[in-house]
Write a structure and sequence with these properties.
single chain; 301 residues; alpha/beta; Arc Repressor Mutant, subunit A; D-Maltodextrin-Binding Protein, domain 2; two-stranded antiparallel ribbon; 11 helices
């Protein structure tokens, strides 16, 4: 048996929460000698003290704080798993369920309230749990059974029938940038400027470099910044220019904090797609695909 079994983790957290072994014993109705024994065993296996004892109670050592951090996460996950499994056991075949959906960061903030408002179109669902994650993280969560659906940047792995909508990446700059042009800019002209882009292997970077190669242009990168929100913030304060989706910048443009130019010849078009975990039944996947196509079709441009 591993020395970090769930019972010992629960006892350790109870001691930390209560501030003393005696108070923890009273709160969780476990004899104080039993708590002391398990704490002693934890410290023996760890090879050092996890708690500093004093007359006023106990305090965490560095190792104790690390163990408490992990124990809190582990016990919360176990509690959630128990609740979901009990709910699944009680649920009949026609009862609604809660679905876990991963979504790329640029889409998640606006999609979440819209999706919740449209749950009446999904009578099979009792609720939706939205998780913000990039495409790679979302696919990992699907394969590990930690998510049911994933809204991702479509690539060669995504069947075309699972495309939800297309969107164009826009050439963005801070409001104080000296370029006052408002009309479209060719991709070659945009690539002549130093850019802030994600690291190699990220969908936006791959798209830009692939199209740059097609037109014989070179990509100049000043900063590598992953995620649309960090790049947006860096763009707003004038650290450089970047390509961002309209949905990520429309509020800042409306507030006068950013400016943009549409990219043409060619445009930086990409598709957003929907993927789901294995063995998810069609009575859920088909209506979800329909609802998300409708929602994202009005959100993206």
């Amino acid at each position: 048996m591993t020395w970090l079994d769930l019972r010992r983790l629960r006892y350790f957290r109870a001691i930390c929460d209560a501030g003393s072994i005696s108070e923890a014993a009273r709160q969780i109705s476990v004899p104080q000698p039993a708590l002391s024994y398990h704490l002693k065993e934890l410290e023996a296996d760890f090879g050092g003290p996890l708690l500093n004892r004093s007359r006023s109670g106990v305090g965490l050592t560095e190792g104790g704080q690390l163990l408490l951090d992990h124990a809190t996460i582990i016990l919360a996950q176990v509690s959630r798993a128990e609740k979901e499994l009990r709910a699944l056991q009680r649920r009949g075949p026609d009862d609604p369920r809660i679905i876990r959906i991963c979504s790329i960061p640029s889409v998640a903030p606006e999609l979440t309230p819209r999706l919740l408002q449209n749950l009446s179109d999904l009578p099979q669902l009792a609720g939706v749990y939205v998780i913000e994650a990039n495409t790679r993280e979302s696919r990992e969560m699907l394969s590990e059974g930690k998510a049911d659906f994933a809204i991702i940047i479509a690539d060669e792995k995504t069947p075309e029938e699972q495309y939800l909508a297309s969107e164009n990446m826009i050439f963005c700059m801070g409001a104080d940038h000296p370029d006052r042009e408002v009309g479209p800019i060719t991709l070659a002209e945009a690539l002549a400027e130093p850019l802030m882009l994600p690291a190699k292997g990220k969908p936006v970077r791959d798209l830009v470099e692939r199209l740059a190669q097609q037109i014989g242009a070179t990509v100049q990168i000043t900063h590598e910044i992953d995620g649309p929100n960090p790049r947006k913030q860096a763009t707003m304060v004038g650290l450089g220019r970047s390509f961002l989706p309209w949905i990520a910048i429309k509020d800042e443009v409306a507030n006068g904090q950013m400016r943009y130019r549409e990219v043409c010849a060619p445009s930086l078009a990409r598709y957003v797609g929907l993927e789901w975990r294995e063995r998810l039944d069609a009575e859920i996947t088909e209506p979800m695909l329909k609802v998300l196509k409708s929602l994202l079709g009005t959100m993206l441009r």
